[in-house]
Design a protein that fits this description.
alpha/beta; Alpha/beta knot; three-stranded parallel β-sheet; 7 strands; 34% helix
Length: 200
């Protein structure tokens, strides 16, 4: 496994840019996963990531070493804490990040249990909703143009791996989609609606 001592390494610089810049994520179609759990779930469902960056101290964790054993060594970069510090938003305790291509799904037909998110702009809220959706058995999530980017660091952090249990579609024009949906539609409103516990 290559040991990197400078943040000027091209692969490290690329990961740092992805964490910091939504424009870079949109341009490259890539995102950064944080932590052993997200890395493990991604590898199980989508294969090896493009690059894995591990802080030296995290190499002592048996669970992480088990995941890394299934990834080509050439794609694992080990860095000291001085280099990790350039990931300003990510605590050293996280231990590992991975650069991956954001999975894309070709829409063929609507599932029986879908979730539509219209203009949910807070990344933390989007992530929490995705996590709840996955736990509830939702199969597909459709986000409007005005919603937060599903693969941003804050959404990924909040969702805790839920992305990889869902089919996610972004920039969807929701009213026409809902109008064509051949199923029951239930809309959440801020006020004036019926309690979800009273709905049939």
């Amino acid at each position: 496994m290559p040991r990197i001592t400078s943040a000027d390494n091209p692969r490290v610089k690329h990961a740092i840019r992805l964490v910091a810049s939504s424009r870079e994520r949109a341009k490259t179609g890539r995102c950064v996963l944080e932590g052993e759990h997200s890395l493990r779930v991604f590898r199980e469902r989508h294969g090896a990531p493009e690059t894995v960056i591990v802080v030296e101290s995290a190499m002592e964790k048996p669970a992480l070493r088990t995941v890394l054993a299934r990834i080509p060594e050439r794609d694992i970069l080990i860095v000291p804490e001085s280099v990790w510090a350039d990931f300003a938003q990510i605590p050293v305790a996280i231990g590992v990040v991975a650069v991956v291509r954001a999975p894309t799904t070709t829409f063929r037909r609507a599932a029986g249990f879908c979730l539509l998110l219209e203009d949910v702009q807070d990344p933390g809220n989007v992530g929490s909703i995705l996590r709840s959706a996955a736990a509830a058995g939702v199969a597909q999530v459709f986000l409007s143009v005005g919603s937060a980017f599903a693969w941003s660091p804050k959404v990924l952090r909040s969702a805790q791996g839920a992305h990889f249990h869902l089919e996610i579609f972004e920039s969807v024009d929701l009213p026409p989609w809902a109008g064509a949906y051949d199923g029951v539609l239930i809309a959440a409103v801020a006020r004036g609606g019926e309690s979800v516990f009273a709905a049939d």
